[in-house]
Design brief:
- This protein is mainly alpha-helical.
- Helix content is 67%, strand content 4%.
- The chain is built from 15 helices and 5 strands.
- It has helices spanning 5-8, 13-55, 68-160, 165-259, 263-274, 291-294, 299-312, 324-329, 363-372, 375-392, 405-442, 453-500, 508-514, 532-550, 618-629; strands spanning 559-563, 582-587, 594-599, 603-608, 612-616.
- It has a 5-stranded antiparallel beta sheet with strand order 4-3-2-1-5.
- α2 (13-55) packs parallel to α4 (165-259).
- The N and C termini lie far apart (126 Å).
């Protein structure tokens, strides 16, 4: 259906002006809508990216690369980040392809509309001016006709009354006036006819030529505006459709990541990570104490049985408390912390200056004190000696013997794999250097072959070192595998043999140590020992030392102290205290910066010497000096 605003809406100039103005307003409103949508997409992408970054691991952890649910979550976060990228791309396309273009086109439409309506107003003003001219000539013609008619009537009336010469002269004058008025009316008639013809011509041109052309231009402008809105909507949908395949692909990857989660594999991985390889503890044997009652009791036999009972009544490692040697003699491995630079007001008055860091007491000197001191002082020297050893010993053995069997095997296997990779890289580098040397020997102008010898020698030494390290770790791995297989055989055949054998008071403890499972050879602090003889010797000595400490009484207080600063005892063997607290001093500082104190006859531990102010008793000072001189 064809329509023409020039013919159909020739008299709707004002309505067309309002309609086109509303169309431009709609164009601006749609541009604002697209811009706000782009801002929303950009903000959404920013929030999604921030969310993905927030929950993404800061640094790669071995645990998160081991389990399928962690890997699936990491893949989901990566795809979420990709979704944010697509949303940012969509926002950029909306801004560049739609918002900017619509803003520029809106200015063009406003200028074009202004021009068209100015032309329409000029045409309308011209036809209105022609109409006014026609009306003026028409009124003049009407006035002249009336005046001519009136003059003719006056002349005719004078002619009828023409009696005298004077009246004749008046009649002649009236006829001349009537003739002039008639002539003026004729001229007004011609002018009116001319104005009428000109107006009809102008009106025909206005409504059949000028108005259709101007209105057709306005109609074309309006159609282009609507078409541009259509293109903008189509571009918006196309821009979003363009990112849909990538979004769909990201969602598919998320689905695949969720489907890749395997609970059974993850639980099996937990076993692989934390399995120690130890066997569960065996049955507890019956110890017949009635055999000692049937024998003759003497002082020596009674003492022997008492000692034997102490040595053999050892608990299994899952239920035993930590060795007293480790508990009583261990002090913090690191040096005590310095006092606070700005202490609280409560401790400012009595706060001494921070003493210079004291040099640690040599272990040999503590051994000499141990051998030459009395019984009570010997125990204090043993505690100091243990503190010194705990500060010295901190590195794990190279063969990973401190680890449980299964963890040791995995650690060695990982080390072997890394060494093999390094060997492969070194061999590739050696082959490249050898080829380069051959090229230099064939073409001396390309380089000096002798310059590669130092590097080849370095690679050769590195390969030899790696081979030695590989053989050493392979030997440790073979040893670990063989011991694990031996422990497996003992688990299958050791149970019935252990229960079938008779237990006597003299052989009970030895039999229990010989048939003990690998789990029982783990020390209370988590270390592991494969050497049976060394383990038995260590346990016997520690057992004797524990027996000595079972009978000792709590050390007497040699004074009191007041805490100058609060201290949080986080290491084993330390004691927490608050500012201004009064404590009993049990043992003075041995030169390592720690003082042993007691609270309420129950809690006992070490605190930094620089954190307290000590008040020794006069009798205790003499006892301490005498014990140091012994």
């Amino acid at each position: 259906m064809s329509c023409n605003w020039g013919t159909e809406l020739w008299d709707q100039f004002d309505n067309l002006e309002k309609h086109t103005s509303w169309g431009i307003d709609f164009l601006e409103r749609y541009s604002k809508f697209v811009k706000e949508r782009a801002d929303i997409e950009l903000s959404y992408a920013k929030q999604i990216r921030s969310l993905s970054k927030k929950y993404h691991p800061k640094r790669s952890r071995e645990d998160e690369s081991r389990y399928t649910w962690c890997l699936a979550f990491a893949a989901t976060l990566r795809q979420l980040n990709e979704l944010a990228v697509q949303r940012e791309e969509l926002a950029e396309n909306l801004n560049t392809q739609i918002v900017c273009e619509l803003t520029r086109y809106t200015q063009e439409v406003k200028t074009e509309r202004k021009t068209h309506f100015q032309d329409g107003r000029r045409a309308q003003q011209h036809i209105e001016s022609s109409w006014k001219q026609l009306e003026s000539s028409k009124r003049r013609f009407e006035r002249d006709c009336k005046e001519a008619e009136r003059a003719q009537q006056i002349s005719d009336r004078i002619d009828l009354d023409n009696k005298t010469d004077g009246e004749k002269r008046c009649s002649l004058k009236a006829r001349q006036t009537a003739q002039q008025k008639k002539q003026a009316a004729e001229e007004s008639r011609k002018e009116y006819v001319t104005s009428l013809n000109q107006f009809n011509q102008d009106q025909h041109q206005h409504y059949h030529t000028l108005v259709p052309v101007i209105y057709q231009r306005i109609q074309d402008m309006e159609e282009r505006r609507i078409e541009r809105i259509c293109e903008a909507m189509r571009s918006s949908a196309e821009a979003e459709r363009k990112v849909l395949p990538v979004v769909s692909r990201c969602l598919d990857v998320m689905m695949d990541a969720a489907e890749s989660i395997q609970p059974r594999m993850d639980t099996q991985q937990v076993v692989e990570v934390y399995k120690s390889g130890f066997d569960p503890p065996g049955d507890v044997e019956f110890e017949d104490y009635s055999a000692t009652m049937r024998r003759s009791i003497s002082e020596s036999s009674y003492l022997d049985n008492r000692t034997e009972g102490r040595r053999h009544s050892r608990k299994l490692w899952p239920f035993i408390r930590k060795n007293k040697l480790l508990t009583l003699l261990s002090s913090p491995r690191q040096p005590p912390p310095p006092p606070p630079t700005s202490p609280s007001p409560g401790g400012m008055a009595n706060s001494p200056q921070s003493p210079p860091p004291a040099s640690r007491e040599p272990i040999t000197q503590r051994l000499n004190d141990l051998m030459t001191s009395s019984s009570r002082t010997r125990k204090q020297c043993l505690r100091s000696l243990k503190r010194g050893l705990s500060l010295k010993l901190g590195s794990s053995p190279a063969d990973c013997s401190h680890l449980p069997p299964e963890q040791r095997r995995k650690k060695l296997q990982t080390r072997i794999n890394n060494i093999n990779q390094e060997i492969q890289r070194e061999k590739e580098q050696r082959d490249a250097l050898l080829k380069m040397r051959e090229v230099y020997e064939r073409s001396p102008q390309m380089g000096d072959a002798g310059s590669l010898e130092p590097r080849l020698e370095e690679v050769k030494q590195s390969l030899q070192r790696l081979d030695d390290e590989l053989r050493r770790n392979q030997a440790w791995l073979s040893e670990a595998d063989s011991r694990m297989s031996d422990h497996g055989g003992q688990r299958q055949s050791g149970g019935c043999g252990l229960n079938s054998q008779a237990t006597t008071p003299g052989s009970s403890s030895l039999k229990q140590l010989d048939n003990r499972s690998p789990a029982s050879r783990e020390s209370p602090d988590g270390s592991y020992t494969e050497d049976h003889s060394a383990e038995l010797q260590f346990k016997s000595r520690s057992s004797e030392f524990d027996d000595d400490f079972d009978d000792e009484e709590p050390l007497p207080s040699i004074g009191t102290c007041k805490s100058l600063y609060p201290f949080q005892g986080q290491n084993e063997g330390t004691l927490s205290m608050v500012e201004g607290e009064l404590l009993s001093v049990v043992e003075e500082d041995k030169g390592d910066g720690w003082t042993r104190v007691r609270r309420n006859l129950e809690e006992e531990g070490y605190v930094p010497t620089s954190y307290i102010k000590v008040f020794l008793d006069s009798s205790a000072k003499g006892f301490v000096q005498s014990s140091r001189l012994v």
